[in-house]
Specification:
This protein has 6 helices and 13 strands. By secondary structure, the chain is an alpha/beta fold. The strands form 3 sheets. Strands 1, 4, 5, 6, 7, 8, 9, 10 and 11 form a 9-stranded mixed sheet that branches. It is globular and about 60 Å long. β2 and β3 (about 65-75) form a beta hairpin. Bound molecules: uracil.
């Protein structure tokens, strides 16, 4: 009997507009308002790829000329889950393409010494059976936050989870592949960078995404 092994799918979006916007995000001279606008635009481009397998159904529609068959998103609607705080900067870019999606929230924080992720807020349905979920976090660095978030979503019944990230590290991708082996998980990113540094930052990266989006007050 054949054994089917599910491996995490990694999709690096190779497009000149993605590369251009990402390069401006990386630049330390890019101010917060520009950073927020470019994040929003970049996420919309990533969302186009990330939703390639969004579930649809066939419907009958009437054009001014004829009756034909069309396509619409099927129920249950997808769920979009930004991971607070930095994932919030990606929400509008995602829901622009999926305006009827529901939105849940997950507050997670990384201990900057141990690099361990812990959850401080959860607002989403307990039962995600049959749901497609898009989880938003700008940086796939150590992988700890996304692994914990995706485990929670799968434990609640999500049938497939797509992580949309601006940037990934090779170490983070390897952790996701190992920790989520056999789970229906896809990662969509604009780039996989060189490495993580000793502080858990992606190199060359773009710095602290939350600080660059919202400043250092939070
Ligand atoms: N989080 C960030 O905001 N930046 C990194 O490089 C890694 C984690």
């Amino acid at each position: 009997m054949a054994v089917i092994v599910v491996v995490m799918r990694l999709h690096v979006v190779d497009h000149p507009l993605v590369a251009h916007k990402l390069s401006t995000l990386r630049d330390e001279r890019t101010d917060s308002p520009t950073f927020r606008r470019l994040t929003d635009e970049l996420v919309t481009l990533l969302a186009y790829e990330a939703t390639r397998d969004v579930r649809t159904e066939t419907v009958e529609i009437t054009t001014p000329v004829a009756v034909t068959r069309g396509t619409r998103l099927s129920y249950p609607r997808p769920l979009v889950v930004p991971i607070l705080r930095a994932g919030l900067g990606m929400l509008d870019g995602m829901t622009r393409l999926l305006p009827t999606a529901e939105v849940g929230f997950l507050g997670m924080v990384r201990n900057e010494e141990t690099l361990e992720a812990s959850t401080y807020a959860t607002r989403m349905p307990d039962d995600l059976s049959g749901r497609q979920v898009y989880v938003l976090d700008p940086m796939l660095a150590t992988g700890g936050t996304l692994v914990a978030a995706i485990r929670m979503l799968i434990d609640r019944g999500a049938t497939d989870v797509t992580a949309v990230v601006l940037l990934a590290s090779p170490e983070g991708v390897a952790v996701m592949e190992r920790e989520l082996a056999g789970q229906p998980v896809t990662v969509v990113t604009a780039a996989v960078d060189e490495r993580l540094n000793e502080h858990g930052y992606i190199v060359p990266g773009l710095g602290d995404a939350g600080d660059r989006l919202y400043g250092t007050a939070g």
